[in-house]
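User: We ran a pulldown and think these components assemble together. Before we commit to crystallization trials, I'd like a predicted model of the whole complex to look at. Sequences follow.
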Amino acid sequence: GAVVSQHPSRVICKSGTSVKIECRSLDFQATTMFWYRQFPKKSLMLMATSNEGSKATYEQGVEKDKFLINHASLTLSTLTVTSAHPEDSSFYICSALPRTGAYNEQFFGPGTRLTVL
Amino acid sequence: GQQVMQIPQYQHVQEGEDFTTYCNSSTTLSNIQWYKQRPGGHPVFLIQLVKSGEVKKQKRLTFQFGEAKKNSSLHITATQTTDVGTYFCAGQTGRRALTFGSGTRLQVQP
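Assistant: Here's a predicted model for the assembly, 227 residues in total across the polymer chains.
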């Protein structure tokens, strides 16, 4: 089956620093990748939709200057949390939508747990 | 915007009892997907329902998609401790992002 990797799996950083999270589709091409955030015991909330070669589309309430998304290739999207604060601590999960295929099944990465001190 | 409600939020059952979680969308969906997330893990795809009134089974799990394509349910027969986790439904319209329900956390008492 299709595999999506995320790196790093866990990161702890100081307040004010920036953190980059990578999302890769390992065995398929994805024109679209999605970034979700999940707080403890809560559901996944969509942050943004990342399309290869174009600007990301952000959901209402998500600051695009704080959460920078780059989708430079058909297999890689990155999310950079700039000037991180403790309230940004969360579980960040990406998913990738294969370029081809009859269905709309998305494949999720294993997630990145961010802790901002 | 599209909203997906899911009930109950939490259910605690004795091993061997049945379990059902219900999902309702504010808009008509092109498909609905179900995911299971174990504590500390990421969502794992279970199934996708596309057709109106569709019913699919996976061993002890039965998934239904409503006739109007706005609601869905997941039923587990004779729960086991391995069923523990949070079950999310996620609605989709076209090739857009999924809108996740709030999830139902299932706890199974041995």
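The mean pLDDT of chain B is 94. That may be worth checking against your pulldown data before setting up trials.

User: Thanks, that helps.
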